[in-house]
Amino acid sequence: MNAFREPPPFNARGVWAIYRFEMARFGRTVFTSLLTPVITTALYFVVFGAAIGGRMGEIDGVPYGAFIVPGLIMLSVLTESIGNASFGIHFPRWTGTIYEVLSAPLSPFEVVLGYVGAATTKSVILGLVIFATAHLFVPIEVQHPLWMAAFLVLTAVSFCLFGFILGIWAKGWEQMQAVPMLVVTPLTFLGGAFYSIDMLPGIWRTISLFNPIVYLVSGFRWSFHGESDVAVGASLAAVCAFLALCLGIAWWILDRGWRLKP
Amino acid sequence: MQPLLDIDGLAKTYASGVVALQPTRLAVRRGEIFALLGPNGAGKTTLIGCVCGLVTPSGGHARVDGFDVVRDARRARARIGLVPQELATDMFETPWATLRLSRGLFGLPPDDALIERTLRELSLWDKREACIQTLSGGMKRRVMIAKALVHEPRLLFMDEPTAGVDVELRRDMRALVRRLREAGTTIVLTTHYIEEAQEMADRVGVILGGELVLVDDKAALLRRFGRKQLTVHLHEPLAALPDALQGLGITLAADGRSLLHAFDAGAEHSGIPAILRRLDEAGIGLRDLHTRESSLEDIFVDLLQRRRGESA
Ligand SMILES: Nc1ncnc2c1ncn2[C@@H]1O[C@H](COP(=O)(O)OP(=O)(O)O)[C@@H](O)[C@H]1O
Ligand SMILES: [Mg+2]
Question: Which ligand places an atom closest to the C-alpha of B39?
Fold first, then answer.
């Protein structure tokens, strides 16, 4: 018998195998994966940017068409992150192939890294494609490109983690659809994607400050236009806190095998 | 020598309250083929799940090559290959891609030559680029076996590997098991087909209602529980058992045409010579005689009945 090869302390090959496998699926469906969000974004621009935006004037000194770009990117990145990541883990649970990952020499962190890493990559690609699409409609300049990249990646990671948790929590496909529809979409629309929360009446403005998505959109918009609804530091802190929370929950789930191991 | 799989008090009670596995002790030796035999719901899959990390044990320990499957999960699992009972494959992938994934998950470098050998051995080579969902059930099962082999495990679990598969796959599987054993792989297989255990295994464990009631060499088991039966077909039917044949444990069949004598397969003196002598002395002509050895199936049924008797 061959000498046994002890697994390394960090199973990088295992992480890479999951990542590659997930990305291969994305590669096969890349056209439809990207086409839908791109068309949706284009429609938003036609409706909000051109048709309505012409009458909206400027917000914080930015033409309305350009003002909504960061919000639109966030909207798509959030939705797709949750969708992709929840599908990525729910599908093998549903087919039963998850047994292979659970019985492989992988730590919870490595499993999360593989699945969430792949979902994040897809989301970031999507965000960049939408950004490029927006360019076709309105001139945009990015004042803080590094921060823009940082907010994009942080948001994608956090919401992919959230999607991962959702995909494990959900007992069926209906539940998987319900959370984004009932919770995330309203929060996104009320999160200042299409307006500045300064435009809201006092009480609603206060309520909005409890909506985590406000912080994301605000910080992301600041990286574009240099204007924000809430302090950038607060945005960054909110994203990082959400990320840490989701990471903790995802780790706990895999460690305990919640909903994965009877 | 330290056993490859050392199960010590492993137990599982599901959240529903079902006691699927009572505290169990079992040592599987290096290089042996161990068959876990038991009816549906006996706890075979649960036991495997506890060792492989698919089920959280409620108590006890299991060690693979000395590594605890919970505390040292990484090193324990690296040694294990699993062919689960349920068919579960990535429908939209090809066998080739899914084998690459399997090997990668175990942290091993790609080895196209090994993947090719594995695919060929399981007659999957021609289908390597086919979408798995287009394959037949038997082919899918072959893919699952290939996935469990491609990281060269030391301990291979096969959970009901031949349930519902075609004759050809059964035959291939037997050849595969022989080949793996020659390469030094230890195999634990579960089955409720007794012939299968009888054919492939070195040792057999019988599990009933979550309790491992018996573990023994297959041969010893047959010797211990095996009953042989001698049947003597007579020339002329008898109305009653003649006096000359009394006291030898012989019974006359209802139709009077044959004599039956049961004895332990392991007993030193079967009593057959004595019976033949007496038949000769009494002038009873015999047409034919044969003996039948009980199979594991008989033993199994026997054990089940004994346990039912005890609990009743
Ligand atoms: N996930 C589960 N939740 C609750 N009960 C289970 C679960 N899996 C198996 N069982 C029960 O545990 C017992 C043993 O099942 P199992 O290990 O699958 O037996 P076998 O593989 O020998 O057929 C059965 O009574 C079964 O119904
Ligand atoms: Mg079973």
Answer: 1
